Amino acid sequence: MNKKGFTLVELLGVITILAIVVTISFSSYMAIKNNSLKNILKTKIEQIEHSAIIYGQENPNEINNTNCDEIVTTNKEGEETRFKPEYCKDITVEVLIEGSFIESKYLDDGSGEYDLINDVTGKSMKQDIVTIYRKNNQIYSIMKDIKSNN
Fold it and tell me: What are the backbone angles phi and psi of residue 35, rounded to the nearest 5°?
């Protein structure tokens, strides 16, 4: 007898292979998506730090706190440098947004109110802390407390 069609074993084999391919594809997709979101967040942090430097340059007399925490920076080779700046000031990202130091094209305005969103967690970055400090008569900044990551 000559039957046309697939047997149950053949169908189960094909379904199993498809399930494995979908699982591998989905996990690869999620890894790529997470890396992309982390890169977007890194770019936003760089933009915030740059905006904080501009804030510090326009308001140099406000960087007058002498009770500064230790700053840890990492260079391109991955070497850490630790130092305690002579003068510093902590501000929130909200101060930079309200002072128009961050361009509105970088802000999400879904609710009619400008906000900077952490792409990894989906939370507002307004309460994240930026430290502006003076070193060798230059103004620098670093994100020290990213509360939106929690």
Answer: -65, -40
Locate tokens 């309200």: which residue?
98
Segments of 30-128 assigned E as strands: 71-74, 80-83, 87-92
Least Cα distance to 38 among 97, 121, 105 occurs for: 121
Give residue 129's Cα distance to chain centre. Answer: 13
CB atoms inside a 10 Å sphere around CB 63: 21
Q: How many CB atoms lie within 10 A of CB 46?
A: 11
Convert the pLDDT of each residue in 8-64 to its tens digit: 999 999 999 999 999 999 999 999 999 999 999 999 999 999 999 999 999 999 999
Sequence letter at residue 38: K
Report residue 21: phi and psi, to 5°. -65, -45
Question: How many other C-beta atoms lie within 10 A of the C-beta of residue 80?
Answer: 8
Beta-bridged to residue 124, according to DSSP, are 117
What is the Cα–Cα distance from 123 to 33, expressed in whole angstroms?
17
Domain segments of the chain as ranges: 8-149
